[in-house]
Amino acid sequence: MQQIAFLFPGQGSQRPGMGRDLVERHPELVDRYYRPADEILGFELSRICWEGTAEDLVPTEITQPAVFLTSIAVLDVLRGHGITPSIAAGHSLGEYAALVSAGVLDWRDALRLVRRRGELMAGVNARTPGAMAAVIGPATSVVEELCAEVRAESGGIVEVANYNDPRQHVVSGEADAVRALSRAAKAAGAERVVALNVGAPFHCSLMAALEDEFTAELDRVEFRDPLFPVLANVTATRVTDGAEARHMLRRQLAGAVRWTDTLKVIDERKVGTFVEAGPGRTLSGFVRNTLPESECHPAGEARRIDRLLKAFDAVPVTVPVTAGAGADARVAVHG
């Protein structure tokens, strides 16, 4: 099997019915993940994933565990066919699934952390209403300069939250400052500026207030050393051990997602095949825009996994593997 990078999506990739076709094809996933997840969370996340509306999936405290759980189900199916990564990364929320894939976190612990993370982030927005917007077109330096200008002129908070690909950047901060940045970006010639329907201003300094409380949550959980390389969002560098993984998740709350750099680091390791292990195809688009010569396979649905298996000429393995034991959005966010 060739060297493969698994990419795990974050908030913004959710969609009604996600994971339903997987459990229809692989009913063992219900008892393995979905039913335990419902018990851990105290509500029927499985029903929301399979039957909920797009509106049901909007609240951050729902979206984050829903996307995470779907990604873990996809991971299990891929492993069950002998498809395993040699390196992994996750976009924001997806970093938790990446750590599960490498044995750093048990999936149950990661689910609890993701749920609490979403609750805390939603609380920030209730206290200080924020916003996010995707700026399409300008180079990184231009977007960073515009943020600095708006901060200097208004005194408001607006920062680059996601460096998604060379021509897409997501800004985050106080609502008025993000609106001012959006106007400035349009005046500077941005192709598009898209206001994002999100539950909080993710990955900016407004989230720094959560760090101490969330650190207490992280400290309750066992973090093991990774079985293979996982790249951290905030540095685009390899996580060396469990302690560093915990520290990077703390920093990630208020730190930017350096996704473009992450993809380039993977490319430098001569890994030319990517698998998007979770709902949606957003990350596959970022791979195409950043590394046009690379191969990327979205694998968030049964039919897409079928195509992947055919491309890899894969067959089911005989021993089941349990993850963690040891309209497509073109803008990725966020939480």
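That was protein one. Protein two is written in the same sequence-then-structure order:
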Amino acid sequence: MVIDGAGYVGGAAWADEWLPREQGGGGWHEVCSRVAGPCVTDMAGVFERRWMLADEAAGRSFDYWTGGVYDDVEFITDAPAPPPLIYERHLERVRAARRRVWIENAYFCPPRGLERELMDAARRGIDVRIIVPRDSDLPSVRRASLARCRSWLESGLQIYEFLPSMLHSKFAVIDDDWATVGTFNMNPTSLRCVSEANLIVKQPTFVRDAALLFERDVERSAAVRLDDLPRQGVIERVRNALWSVSLDLLEPRRAGIRRRGELHGRDGGLLQALGI
């Protein structure tokens, strides 16, 4: 969203669910970032290009990435076809993490490549914390994550469930010099099915503020322990495993990074999930 000289990236949904409860809504928790400066020109250009393509029957879309042209910010839009640019930026930064990886995401069930990097980071002593909703509006994603949650906890990931309301935010903080806010649903549907937009910010003040928000949300969340995982019968385990595998099928086999500003139109499996 661009309004005059400011751009907004993240959650800005207009529906009753996002209204405060005292106004009759669901009080959903959301995060959105505001950016000013030359990057807004990139955002406006992306909107104008999509505006021209919006009424085409083919529904063409495109990727856009500002790359390293700005010292402190990157803007990325990601069309529903490989290569998955936003995913690749997360992957690279988690791999390079030195101290912490904090993720708050409404639909967390990461592609296997990112899942491996998060588990590896936790094993090498990185503080990996994940906040997810306790009561999700997409039960299928929650069921898929339940099939994997034990392996996450055993690898050292710290999982928290947000309690006050539905958590719809999607942001992450890595170390003290990298944060991202956007629409990236951290599961393979974002790689194959939808267009996403994320802002990556490297300003220490912004990163600090995002970390403070994360810490406040942890205080309103309950930690998930191995002993707390729900007992699952065979049928439920199979159902959850099938949801997990269905997400696996959406993950691209290969991915790469495009050059900055490139615009163009674009026409572990079941046994692991079962714990066998």
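Residues 123 and 155 are 6 Å apart (CA to CA). Keep this in mind for the problem set.
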